[in-house]
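Dear all,

This email documents one entry for the complex benchmark we are building for the journal club exercise. For each entry we list the sequence lines for every component of the assembly. Then comes the predicted three-dimensional structure of the complex as a token string, followed by one or two observations. Please use this as the template for your own entries, and keep the labels exactly as they appear.
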Amino acid sequence: MKIDRRSFLSLGVGAGAGIALSPLPWKLTDDSSIWTQMWPWTPVPRDGAVNYVNTASTICSGGCGLSVRKIDDRAVKVEGLKGYPGSNGNACIHCMAGIQMLYSPNAVKSPMKRTGKRGEGKWQPISWDEAISETAKKLGELRESGKASTLACILNSDYGTIPALFKQFLNAFGSPNFMRTPSYQDAYEMTLALMHQTDSMAVFDAENADFVLSFGSGIIDGWGSSVRMFKANSSWKEKNVKLVQIEPRLSNTAAKSDQWLPVNPGTELILALGIAHVIITESLYNKDFVEKYAEGFEDWTDNEGNKQKGFKNFVLEGYSPSYAARVTGIEANTIVKLAKDFAGASAPLALCGRGQGTTPGSIHEFMAVHALNALVGNINKKGGIWAMPKPDYIKWEQAKLDDTAREGLKVPRADGAGTEKFPHAKYLLTRLPEVINSAKESPIQALFVSGANPAYTLPDTKAVAKAFASIPFIVSFTSHMDETAEMADIILPNHGHFERYEDIPAPPGYNKPVVGLARPVISPQHNTRHVGDTLIAIAGKLGGTIAESFPWKSYEECLEKTMGENWTSIQESGVITNPDYEAPGWDTAFETSSKKFAFIPGNHNPGNNSLQIPVIEGNDNYRLTLIPYDSMRLAAGPVGNTPFVTKTVSEKVLKGNDICIEINPKTAEKYGLKQGQYAILTTPKGKAKVKTELSPGIMPDIIAMPRGLGHTGIDEYLAGKGININELIGPVEDPASGLDAAWGIKADLVKA
Amino acid sequence: MSTLDDKPKEVSDSGGFAILFFIVGLVASLVVGWVVFPKLLYSQKKQPFDFNHQLHNELVDDGCQSCHFFREDGSYAGVPKLEQCSGCHEEVQGETEDEAVFVNEYVANNREVPWLIYSRQPDCVFFSHAAHVKAGQMDCKTCHGDIGTSTTLKVYEENRITGYSRDIWGKNIAGFKKNTWDRMKMDDCSECHVKLGVNQTSVQTQKGACFVCHK
Ligand code: SF4
């Protein structure tokens, strides 16, 4: 007998039989199938008690009402809050995906101090005490050296208690430099200040309009309070309300409109005046309003005895439909028909502010569009544009001033707003980088940034970065590592958007007074602090009149006292509103000396000069014009896209990490470009590698690029995707207002 | 001249030997499959501390429902939250070590107890307690056994591959069961569903069969 190969085979067969007769293979098969169907690393929603917390959103200025579903203490789903003014039960993708932002592994987890060079990304976590002491020390030194006025604050809003706290701080400190990030609201507010002489907000009774003439406003691309505008647009479809969209690119709004009029970009002002021309010549204007409640329509003689040209003759002499057709590229008979349809509607509404309205635009364009509303008498009327007073529920005692503060407040604003050159402007943040860069020593020595991301959103990012580099001390209050935070010296992280209280007043464009309440849905996940509490703490550390100007122990106490008797009701219902609000009638609406609407405001008469369309940057060596465009799928404001939302971005916009540039097939052919090709885009501001996207929806010789891409910060899911259009475009100063009137930039595109 | 036939024939001699090897292989692998494998497959885990169901059952008015109740929205609360216990257990009661652990480590720090749940099913299974207990009038024991009279918590055996408790497959590695509560596999659910002719459709998908439990 000998042990041979056969024996081993027998052993193997025996073992095989034994295994088959044991539960091992069957059990292993079962277990591995469970394992493969339930990868242990796949996140699974937690099981627990369901509860809902109602809140208002701080993610964007839309300020929609939200209902957050929680499982135990974890927020799991965001829905619109029923009954909330405007958004009423709806929310857009950004808030719905906002949970990802809340639990983002990239949230700033504690106060941080920069250790490496600016922008190098080297940080050291520090304690709150240290962070606040260091900030207060730096600010104290500024005051001691007589430079109180060199502290600036940049925020994304100037309504509500948070901006009010920053203003209070600046006042007590001694600086006039509170700055709001630019938007079409600047231009609208100025338009109302000039033509109504009121300090008010432009709001729209959109739901009741029966003819909407949009000069490039992205009604369903994020303009105004986005969710409300989506709903208004749906209601127009149901009621057969006509929407005419005027813009050079077939945006989503244009695609869903009843008539799309591709206009030569930047010439919308001339189109508005051409329409006015038809309305006046055909005598289609509202005589009651124009004759009884308006001034400056007919020619007049001013106090000094000089003859002044009125709006009527100004338009009739300069802006015939045929002239407008030549400039705008829209046929004269189309303009005539459009004017007749507009004036013939019972509640026609004209609105402007391109795309999402992140660039203010030419003040004359806003005034011309507003004059159209005036001609048809649809100001402060059902379905029209209303001038609504700004929220005024904050009634604090004024900041206490010491000598340093009094001196500091006398210094003119660094951005030139409110100065002799730009008397009507409140904030001119887009001017600031240039002011700093051309100064020997930066007029801003310390900067606070809260709720804004100027290093990303301001045009000409390079100039902004250069300007920030010469500001010695920058404090960011962000809860995410955005581009501005990357340039900061200290980060004092605010609680996340569902971790804090905040009043949310005045959703843009909404025509009823609203103050919503954002409230903590979950407890703070990290070592963060409410920005209000941080500011109170810094004021306390600075002591003296500054500390005295903050008589609250905490932000919550401040908010409660501010709301006064409304505190209980706002906590219960999440909002204070007045659905019955109506705009004042024409006899009391205007604050001009004649109490009339001013077609041509006294100090703003263009006289015999024709109005200029803002000239964009670049010379004739550039063969094309680049315009930015907005999309609901790309957050272009201070808050960036969450990963879920970026997943919804089309490959025609972002392919891998490459940004796609829309170009008309004819233009592409002319310049030898093909679909999906790499190309080099050049503008006077910079260069970028892009991909071509042939689209008949863009006018020839114009190319379009989306806003909201090209982040370097926020998180690794967004950083490095595409190009930030602000790297390629700079601001264009509107000579009449100082606001940024850039609607594009000259550009060239060649095969890479 | 030799032929093949001349070679010594040893083949038949090794026949018995081959059988022996076969048997050795068979027995060894049977031992591996039935004894060693189950030991290797499951790791033994202890609960954070011990719990006496019987003791608590005597103190409450409403049986199992006192602690394992339905929430207002009809969903089932499952294992009690700390909040439910801390009412009585704010201070250490009695002298057991487990009680001290509970109060000092969890109640005092307001930390939920990370109980290991014997009956946790894979996440692809949708199971409604309300449908079974309220609509189907089943008692807890049918699936969970006599846990209410136990005085101590058994060791939690965790399947190293799936991460679920051994109680789902059942203690018997062959999958045999004596009692309805010995196993909680899909076959055990369907056995009852078939027997009782359950033909409800899923509320969510409006479909029957697999879709009642797998959405
Ligand atoms: S519009 Fe703004 S506030 Fe409203 S749901 Fe979208 S992101 Fe949120």
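Observations: The pocket of iron/sulfur cluster is lined by residues A 57, 59-60, 62-64, 87, 91-92, 94-95, 226-227 (CB under 6 Å). The first strand of chain A starts at residue 50 and ends at 56.
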